[in-house]
Amino acid sequence: KMVQKNSRCIEGSATNEVFRRLYISSRRASAKDFAKWVRQHWSIENKCHWIADVIFEEDDNLMDRGHSAENMGLFRRLAMIIAAVADPERGLAAVRRAATFGTGYLKGILVIIFCREMSKNFS
After folding, report:
1. How many CB atoms lie within 10 A of CB 7?
2. What is the largest CA-CA distance in the chain?
3. What does the alpha-carbon distance between residue 41 and residue 54 come to, in Å, rounded to a whole number?
4. How far apart are CA 29 and CA 54, in angstroms?
């Protein structure tokens, strides 16, 4: 019922890249509503998947046994949520780096998360 073609040209130092996307939907909508749906889709993509790829190098991961890739993706998303809740002032990369330097920071994050949840349950 509805098709939208979207092109974007990125001028780089060596080459100019053109990205073309084709959106197909069975729903009827105005151009304004359809553009809103597309922006919402890319908002999710940029907030979640881009972070997982840049911080955790998810696209370079070669896990292919059983559900290992899906399971690791779940742990990565959990780590992103925990980092955002426990230390919202720092970026995810900084929280991840600090958690690898020693167990003190990591324990502190876990205490913040689990104590907050426990206090909600007993309130």
Report:
1. 8
2. 60
3. 19
4. 34
Residue 123 scores a pLDDT above 60 = no
Task: Decide: pTM greater than 0.70.
Answer: no
pLDDT at 25 over 80: no
Residue 53 host element (H or E)? helix 50-56
Cα(25)–Cα(42) distance, integer angstroms: 16
Give residue limits of the domains in the chain.
61-123
pLDDT digits (tens, 9 = 90+) for 45-74: 666 666 777 676 766 666 666 777 788 878
Alpha-carbon distance of 96 to 118, in angstroms, equals 24
User: How far is residue 39 CA from its own chain's centroid?
Assistant: 15
